[in-house]
Amino acid sequence: MAMKRGVCRFGLWRVHVSWSGDTVYRVLFSKTGEGGDVPPEFRLYFSGKPINFGRLNSTGTEEGSPFAEIYREVLKIPYGQTATYGDIADLTGTNPRMVGNAMKRNPTPIIIPCHRVVSKSGIGGFTPDVEIKKLLLAMENANKSGN
DNA sequence: TAAACTGTCCCGC
DNA sequence: GCGGGACAGTTTA
Protein backbone atom coordinates (compact mmCIF):
# COMPACT_ATOMS: atom_id res chain seq x y z
CA MET A 1 0.00 0.00 0.00
CA ALA A 2 1.45 3.32 -1.05
CA MET A 3 2.19 5.83 1.61
CA LYS A 4 0.07 8.96 1.54
CA ARG A 5 0.85 12.37 2.86
CA GLY A 6 -1.73 14.90 3.94
CA VAL A 7 -2.15 18.07 5.95
CA CYS A 8 -4.78 18.89 8.53
CA ARG A 9 -5.41 22.32 10.02
CA PHE A 10 -5.20 22.99 13.74
CA GLY A 11 -5.55 26.69 14.48
CA LEU A 12 -2.56 28.47 13.06
CA TRP A 13 -0.72 25.18 12.71
CA ARG A 14 -0.65 22.58 9.99
CA VAL A 15 -0.40 18.92 10.90
CA HIS A 16 1.45 16.86 8.31
CA VAL A 17 0.57 13.17 8.38
CA SER A 18 2.41 10.42 6.54
CA TRP A 19 0.26 7.32 6.55
CA SER A 20 -0.93 4.27 4.72
CA GLY A 21 -4.15 2.42 5.44
CA ASP A 22 -4.44 2.30 9.21
CA THR A 23 -0.76 2.82 9.93
CA VAL A 24 0.69 6.26 10.62
CA TYR A 25 4.39 6.64 9.99
CA ARG A 26 5.02 10.22 10.91
CA VAL A 27 3.23 13.27 12.30
CA LEU A 28 4.84 16.69 11.93
CA PHE A 29 3.79 20.21 12.88
CA SER A 30 4.55 23.29 10.83
CA LYS A 31 2.98 26.64 10.08
CA THR A 32 2.71 26.10 6.35
CA GLY A 33 1.41 23.52 3.94
CA GLU A 34 -1.95 22.26 2.79
CA GLY A 35 -3.65 19.62 0.71
CA GLY A 36 -3.74 15.86 0.74
CA ASP A 37 -5.78 13.42 2.76
CA VAL A 38 -5.35 12.54 6.39
CA PRO A 39 -7.02 9.68 8.30
CA PRO A 40 -10.59 10.62 9.31
CA GLU A 41 -9.62 10.37 12.97
CA PHE A 42 -7.38 13.38 12.54
CA ARG A 43 -10.11 15.56 11.07
CA LEU A 44 -12.51 14.54 13.83
CA TYR A 45 -9.96 15.08 16.55
CA PHE A 46 -8.90 18.51 15.36
CA SER A 47 -12.52 19.53 14.94
CA GLY A 48 -12.89 18.99 18.69
CA LYS A 49 -14.37 15.52 18.84
CA PRO A 50 -13.22 13.53 21.90
CA ILE A 51 -12.13 10.51 19.90
CA ASN A 52 -9.21 8.20 20.37
CA PHE A 53 -6.82 6.85 17.79
CA GLY A 54 -7.19 3.25 18.79
CA ARG A 55 -7.87 2.14 15.23
CA LEU A 56 -4.60 3.51 13.98
CA ASN A 57 -1.22 1.92 14.38
CA SER A 58 1.80 4.11 14.68
CA THR A 59 5.44 3.44 14.08
CA GLY A 60 7.81 3.57 17.00
CA THR A 61 5.52 1.76 19.39
CA GLU A 62 6.37 -1.76 18.28
CA GLU A 63 8.36 -4.06 20.51
CA GLY A 64 12.06 -3.61 20.30
CA SER A 65 11.97 0.12 20.46
CA PRO A 66 13.66 1.30 23.66
CA PHE A 67 10.78 3.63 24.33
CA ALA A 68 8.02 1.14 23.51
CA GLU A 69 7.01 0.66 27.12
CA ILE A 70 6.88 4.39 27.74
CA TYR A 71 4.77 4.94 24.63
CA ARG A 72 2.43 2.16 25.71
CA GLU A 73 1.78 3.85 29.04
CA VAL A 74 1.29 7.23 27.40
CA LEU A 75 -1.28 5.69 25.05
CA LYS A 76 -3.37 4.72 28.06
CA ILE A 77 -3.93 8.35 29.11
CA PRO A 78 -7.58 9.11 28.31
CA TYR A 79 -8.81 12.09 26.33
CA GLY A 80 -8.85 15.25 28.42
CA GLN A 81 -6.66 13.84 31.16
CA THR A 82 -2.96 14.27 31.88
CA ALA A 83 -0.14 12.41 33.59
CA THR A 84 3.21 13.71 34.74
CA TYR A 85 6.62 12.65 33.51
CA GLY A 86 7.18 11.23 36.96
CA ASP A 87 4.04 9.10 36.74
CA ILE A 88 5.13 7.53 33.48
CA ALA A 89 8.65 7.06 34.79
CA ASP A 90 7.29 5.26 37.81
CA LEU A 91 5.08 3.00 35.70
CA THR A 92 7.90 2.08 33.35
CA GLY A 93 10.66 1.85 35.95
CA THR A 94 12.80 4.58 34.44
CA ASN A 95 13.22 8.24 35.30
CA PRO A 96 11.43 11.40 34.22
CA ARG A 97 14.33 12.57 32.11
CA MET A 98 13.98 9.42 30.06
CA VAL A 99 10.28 10.00 29.58
CA GLY A 100 10.86 13.51 28.28
CA ASN A 101 13.47 12.12 25.96
CA ALA A 102 11.06 9.50 24.68
CA MET A 103 8.38 12.10 24.07
CA LYS A 104 10.75 14.23 22.09
CA ARG A 105 11.76 11.29 19.92
CA ASN A 106 8.13 10.30 19.47
CA PRO A 107 7.58 9.99 15.70
CA THR A 108 3.81 10.29 15.93
CA PRO A 109 2.60 12.89 18.41
CA ILE A 110 -1.19 13.13 18.78
CA ILE A 111 -1.51 9.39 18.20
CA ILE A 112 0.90 8.90 21.05
CA PRO A 113 -0.59 11.69 23.18
CA CYS A 114 2.66 13.16 24.40
CA HIS A 115 0.87 16.47 24.95
CA ARG A 116 -1.01 14.80 27.83
CA VAL A 117 2.27 14.26 29.66
CA VAL A 118 3.04 17.38 31.66
CA SER A 119 5.63 18.51 34.15
CA LYS A 120 4.90 18.16 37.84
CA SER A 121 4.95 21.93 38.32
CA GLY A 122 4.12 23.25 34.87
CA ILE A 123 3.29 22.19 31.37
CA GLY A 124 6.66 20.74 30.45
CA GLY A 125 7.89 21.03 26.91
CA PHE A 126 6.88 20.18 23.40
CA THR A 127 8.58 19.95 20.03
CA PRO A 128 8.49 21.99 17.87
CA ASP A 129 6.56 24.48 20.00
CA VAL A 130 5.01 24.25 23.45
CA GLU A 131 2.20 26.46 22.15
CA ILE A 132 0.82 23.43 20.34
CA LYS A 133 0.70 21.52 23.59
CA LYS A 134 -1.20 24.29 25.28
CA LEU A 135 -3.72 24.43 22.45
CA LEU A 136 -4.24 20.69 22.42
CA LEU A 137 -4.75 20.50 26.17
CA ALA A 138 -7.12 23.46 26.11
CA MET A 139 -9.13 21.88 23.33
CA GLU A 140 -9.38 18.50 25.04
CA ASN A 141 -10.26 20.09 28.33
CA ALA A 142 -13.05 22.06 26.69
CA ASN A 143 -14.53 19.04 24.92
CA LYS A 144 -13.93 16.14 27.28
CA SER A 145 -17.22 16.36 29.14
CA GLY A 146 -19.78 17.17 26.52
CA ASN A 147 -18.69 20.76 26.22
C1' DT B 1 18.90 27.61 44.76
C1' DA B 2 22.11 24.29 42.90
C1' DA B 3 23.59 19.83 41.74
C1' DA B 4 23.03 14.92 40.97
C1' DC B 5 20.69 11.34 38.62
C1' DT B 6 19.01 8.77 34.50
C1' DG B 7 18.77 6.26 29.52
C1' DT B 8 18.97 7.06 24.90
C1' DC B 9 20.15 9.31 20.61
C1' DC B 10 23.19 12.27 17.78
C1' DC B 11 27.49 13.96 16.30
C1' DG B 12 32.43 13.95 15.83
C1' DC B 13 36.54 11.42 15.81
C1' DG C 1 33.01 1.51 15.87
C1' DC C 2 33.61 4.22 20.05
C1' DG C 3 33.22 8.21 23.27
C1' DG C 4 31.33 12.59 24.78
C1' DG C 5 27.50 15.86 24.95
C1' DA C 6 22.59 17.03 24.95
C1' DC C 7 17.90 16.46 26.42
C1' DA C 8 10.20 18.12 26.71
C1' DG C 9 12.22 16.38 34.56
C1' DT C 10 12.46 15.32 39.46
C1' DT C 11 14.48 14.92 43.82
C1' DT C 12 17.63 15.93 47.50
C1' DA C 13 20.87 18.77 50.16
Largest sheet: 4 strands, mixed
Number of strands: 6
Corresponding CATH superfamily of the largest domain: Winged helix-like DNA-binding domain superfamily/Winged helix DNA-binding domain
- β-strand percent reads 15-25%
Q: What's the number of helices?
A: 5
CATH architecture label name of the largest domain:
Orthogonal Bundle
Mean pLDDT: 91
- Record the strand order, biggest sheet: 1-2-3-4
Brief write-up:
The chain is an alpha/beta fold and 147 residues long. It has five helices and six strands, in the order E-E-E-H-E-H-E-H-H-E-H.
Describe the structure.
Helix 1 (40-46) links the parallel strand 3 and strand 4. The strands form two sheets. A four-stranded mixed beta sheet has the order 1-2-3-4, covered by helices on one side. A two-stranded parallel sheet has the order 5-6. The longest helix is centred in the C-terminal third of the chain and has 14 residues, at 130-143. The protein has helices at 40-46, 68-75, 85-92, 96-105, 130-143, and strands at residues 4-10, 13-20, 23-30, 57-58, 83-84, 117-118. Helices cover 32% and strands 20% of the residues. It folds into two domains: 4-46, no CATH class; 60-143, Winged helix-like DNA-binding domain superfamily/Winged helix DNA-binding domain (Arc Repressor Mutant, subunit A, Orthogonal Bundle). With 147 residues, the chain is an alpha/beta fold. The mean pLDDT is 91. The protein is built from five helices and six strands. It binds a DNA duplex (13 and 13 nucleotides) through residues 66-67, 84-86, 89, 94-105, 114, 117-121, 123-127, 130, 133.
